[in-house]
Specification:
This protein is mostly beta strands and about 120 residues long. Helices cover about 0% and strands about 60% of the residues. The radius of gyration is 14 Å and the shape is globular.
């Protein structure tokens, strides 16, 4: 099992920055990908940024150039640096880890609220 705990969410003004953290504990092996998703009210959960085990990143078009995903392997933590935040970035952000053990296994954090408003 993998236990994920997110932190770093909050209220920020448009144009501001936040840094989300996701600390992983438990059986942290065979990690295939780590990533961040978000879900706004009334909308489906969507991928924001992903990071493969070999360091390849991908981003949603809406956040390219503004958000950066990174990982501290020593601390088993994945980060999402969010700059130039917009009101439309308001959502609950979820950390996701996928382990590859033959099949793929998904793990999710509890989510952290990000609100961008003046």
């Amino acid at each position: 099992q993998v236990h994920l705990v997110e932190s770093g969410g909050g209220l920020v003004q448009p144009g501001g920055s936040l840094r989300l953290s996701c600390a992983a504990s438990g059986t942290i092996s065979n990690i295939y990908t780590m990533g961040w998703y978000r879900q706004a009210p009334g909308k489906q959960r969507e991928l924001v940024a992903g990071l493969t085990s070999v360091g390849v990143t991908n981003y949603a078009d809406a956040v390219k150039g503004r958000f950066t995903i990174s990982r501290d392997n020593a601390k088993n933590t994945v980060f999402l640096q969010m700059n130039s935040l917009k009101p439309e970035d308001t959502a609950v952000y979820y950390c996701n880890v996928v382990r590859r053990l033959g099949a793929l296994y998904d793990y999710w954090g509890q989510g952290t609220q990000v609100t961008v408003s003046s």
